[in-house]
Description:
By secondary structure, the chain is α+β, with helices and mostly antiparallel strands. The protein contains 48 helices and 23 strands. The strands form eight sheets. Strands 11, 12, 13, 14 and 15 form a five-stranded antiparallel beta sheet that branches. Helix 11 packs across helix 31 and helix 29 packs antiparallel against helix 45. The relative contact order is 0.10.
Amino acid sequence: MEVLREHSAMRSEGRCAMRGSCGPKSMFGKPLPCPYDGPPSEDDVDRDLLTTLCGAEYSQGPTCCTTNQLETLRDNLGIAENLISSCPACRNNFRQFWCSFTCSPNQASYLNVTATQTSSTGDTAVKSVDFLVSEQFGKGFYDSCKDIKMGATNGYAMDLLGGGAKDYHAFLKFMGDEKDMGSPFQINFPSTSPPEYSPLNVTARNCYDNDLGSRCTCIDCLDVCEKLPDIPPPNAQPTCQVGLVSCLTFVLLLAYGLAVLSFALGYGLQVTLRRRREKSYERVALATDSASERVASPRTHARGLVGASSLAQYLDGEDSTGTQSESRRLGRGASLLDPIETVQPRHYRLNTILRRGFYRLGLFAATNPWLNFALVFAVFGLLNLGWKRFEVETDPVRLWVAPDSESKLQKEFFDEQFGPFYRVEQVFVTAVGSTGGSSPTDKPPVLSWDHLKFWADVEDDIRNLQSKPHGYTLSDVCLKPAGPDGFCVVQSIMAWFGNDLSSYDPDTWQDRLENCAETPVNCLPDFQQPLAPQMVLGSVPEDEDGMKEYSKARAFVVTYVVPDSLDKAEQAKAMEWEYALRDYLQNLSERAPKEAGLEIAWSTGISLEEEINKSTNTDIKIVVLSYVAMFFYVALTLGNGAATRDEEGLWACLVQWVTNFPKLFGQPSASSTLSLDSRLAPTFLPRLPRALFVGSKFTLGLFGIALVILSVSSSVGLFSALGVKVTLIIAEVIPFLVLAVGVDNVFILVHELDRQNLLHGPNAGPGAGAPAWAYGDAYSYGHTTPMSPTTQQSRTRSGFDSQERETEHEHDREVSLDAGSTPQYLSAEERVARTLAKMGPSILLSTVTETTAFALGALVPMPAVRNFALYAAGSVFLNAVLQVTVFVSALVVDLRRVEASRVDCFPCVRLPPRIALLEGPPSGGGLSFLARFIRKRYAPFLLKPVVKGIVLLSFGGILVASIISIQHIRLGFDQRLAFPSESYLIPYFDSVDTYLDIGPPVYFVVHDVDVTHRPGQQELCGRFTTCEARSVANVLEAERKREEVSYISQPAASWIDDFFNWLDPLKDRCCRVRKANHDIFCDSGEPPRRCQVCYEDHEPAWNITMNGLPEGEEFMMYLRQWLISPTSEDCPLAGKASFGTALALSEDRKTVTASHFRTFHKPLKSQADLINAHAAARRIADDLSAATGASVFPYSLHYVFFDQFAHIVAITEQILGLGLAAVLLVTALLLGSWRTGTIVTGVVALTVVTVMGVMGVWGIDLNAISLVNLVISLGIAVEFCAHVARAFMSAGSGLPVDHPAGQKERDERMWIALVDVGPSVLSGITFTKLIGMCVLALTRSKFLEIYYFRMWLTLIISGALHGLVLLPVVLSLAGGSGFPQQEADEEWMSHAIRNDYEYTPFLADDDSAVSD
């Protein structure tokens, strides 16, 4: 090798530095130029070729090149111009640059040969040169080429032409580096010029210049593009801000502050005015009493009860007046009733009809329990026959995507026209952290020589992996762009090393990796597509200068691309190999940490469906424990409210036993020996209460839960028969839901039956028609005491039968029995019938509203959610049917067991009767501790005026906070939650979020456009001067430039531009036909002497105005050939590899049915990114459809799952709005008051709003699952409110709302309602659900924790607070006029009077303590 010295004198023009060819470096290399220090010459120059390549300026005069050099230049320019010919400025600058380098007669003024070498022919050839280029020309040259797109790779021509250069220095360096696919000798570009040299400084063409030799289209030149108007990003937050908060938040806070102030002032004024009115009214009432003062009947000692209104109609006029007179002395809690309104209370006809209907149903079920069992179970048995058609849906798309979803239909269209999207087998490889369990962001660098060697062996194993039983390998199933004989697409870091590390060692591998990462085109894999570093490396750090340190990447990514197919046989073939790959990777994930210190996160084509189909409940023990906890609570709590006489509880018995036990070892005292109370006698074993054995309702609770299971089973049978498939979520959640929803009806029925037993059971107080011995033992009636003489007449003298005997014109008048003559003792059947008569309408109210609310969930188009809603609605409805039929029969059977003193669970065992004590009324009034607490403490406290104000203000604050929080609810559903907690896909998706630096591909599919004619072509193309300004290609390029709005980051692959450029006659290696027959195309191997370019003699000629481009049948002829022409280095524009699947032709292959333009999203790291990317693509497609008239839609693999979020907010508003309308209609109709119905609906709405507010702060996203939970929240919120509201309406005296005493009357009605059903709502609804939810808190499943534990816990607490705190307050302030109950209420009041009960909420004095 010889190193040449630079001349010290100024290099003169008209001299050469090299000329001629001196042979290649090796036998198969490219020819090298000869060093030549002499004048240019006109010898051995093909002037025509020179003029063709370098322009008219070389048409005459001497040059520094020969014909051999020109031929080499022609070949090299041809390869480059396949990439850059679409932009004339770049193409002409490129030719100017290399023609100046090769042929300029002034070559020596900017070119210096710095070293020579001996070629394979023995001649001295150039080894390296310095090429001096001015900054002005270098920068202009680079700028004209930097934006030229390479559609086939969704990249840039600069990626191949300049190695992805970011400035002109890197661009020139890449072209000058010696390499097999580039320059055969080294060309250096010094940044400074020696004084004796003059750098090449010609004027570079700009892509935006107007002359035809320069101007490029928008796709390849940003400066000529029309800028799109600014638009906000998808789902952008409101821009209206006041300081740090949104305008809405500011307005709400301001309004709430004003409301608090106004409420305080207004409430104070209202209280003052009301007191004045009441004093005026009391003076009028006092004057009336003074004029007609009489002695009241002893029966009027009712302490001013609201219920006295219904009793008063059976008293004479004097008694009525006496009742009114007596009420004056009762203090604030008394009702001041008008005599006329008291005698003529309001009634609601529908209420009467419902009570009659439920009474008849209850009487039948109680009288004929076994017949009822047989009939109902027969019907439900028939429903369960539907299990024969039982099917479980497992396909994720059919589970989570609506059948008529736009994205689903578009996916099906895409799959049918272009084939399904690829099946991706992907592995993320990371190093084991120092702690062995570091998070993805804290992983150490993964690349090392040992790790590469280990992974090279892994990839060899995978390439040779054989499936069972057919023995398929990767080569049998992989994607091969070049055809069946080509190579598989395996995107791996090993491809940069040629899948062989034998040529590298611990000292050289890092240099190779860095070089390949910086210029991927220098390291093409065997499938000949450059691998950008973001495709194979993850989480690459940067140094202080912002340069990527690729060798310190924390992860590398390996992707095997397997084509999918609609052909089931081909699909099964791929799936069989994937099962083998899954097993191999599963084993590798276990051994890699130990063998190589590597961890892998991976997914295969079968993984998603396989993992979703696994039971999402990995914590089956927790769920079962939750069920068991609720079951035991229900079973053990049901018997607590049973009416007993002096029966002590278990705890009291144990305390008494511990107290008396020492007496066994002491001297017996006289008093103890004479004691008549056996409970004081010491015993070795504690005397357990009889209620523990007889009064327990464990079996009844078990039966109620069995009915829940039966209702779910029957619902499954019914809907299976109707073709509605089951999903796994149904099996997990619906029994839980139905148990939580249905168990409160069980509590309400049992508690009401306990009250009926207290009034009319064997332990009821003696009345006019019942002798004193009717006070027999609570559990021994019918076996140890004579039967009450009223037994035989009890069924025929009920108020319902008397009403039935009324004539049609008497229906407006209610007939009831006199309280004094009503029989105190009623049979078990009558008591059960009255229980259902009273509580049946409440059950109907809650059931209808819940079923309606759940059924509205079926409006959600997602099948998994719709099916869940249908099954839930069916289960709740069927469970209610079972409760008012079968459970009623079970009640009477259990009641008979209790009164026969038979042991629960062991009815064959009968305890001996106890001696009945005659003196003293029953203690405790049959009220449980919870009921006594509500009666004495909670209700009086809640109904104080000051407390009401505080409650309203507090819930107003909760409402404001909830609305503010709702603004921060996010849309989305983290797919990781759909997998079992131990699924290997969870770390895989974690790795995707952390390491993958490239977004998913997106296809803009165009159909309903005729591309065989010029208008249709112009609507699609972008690289020709007559293309529409708003064509598909131009708009996609313009959208790419605003990535933050469009979420598109890569150039689009425009098939029509590449196709037309393939026809360019200057690309003589692309489209060729036989010279002898132009209808026959030449393949790539045929010699030039037999072929010519397609458009060589075409008239009109090919040009960028599209004037000469093919149309009609000629278009289709060339297109069909283009689609099968192999993509190669000689002709990268050929369509087989790049666009072979981008067009769908008709069956006769004469028209284009559809085509797509492929591009890529930017990296999508969150649910918000995925949703926004889908929304942005939708917007772009809609804009394209409007601009071009063609039908355009976007398709990406994840769109089908995210289509719901385009409509989820509107669907939520629609369903909740319809649900609230249904609640309003049902409650107003069944309660008989639009005022009360509106209040209940408002409280239900506030409950749902509160739940939504908590969603915003507890990380619960809005999606189809949470939407169904909101619908469930609406239904269960009704459960908390319905019973209280109905009890409030049923305790009415008929006073009009604006009556002066209306406020006190409403307070008393609400007090009665809280005492009546409050314990059932708390114990039956709130506590049952809380127990189940608290156990569910132990789950490790994030899905159950977020969407069930968090949401339902919020619902339970919110529902209980709104139903038992806010609703009573609002009803007591503004509730509608009530409708008094008849028989049952009169008897309760008369019973209370006989036993001197304090039944007013505001007289909690010392004298009333005995009533507790």
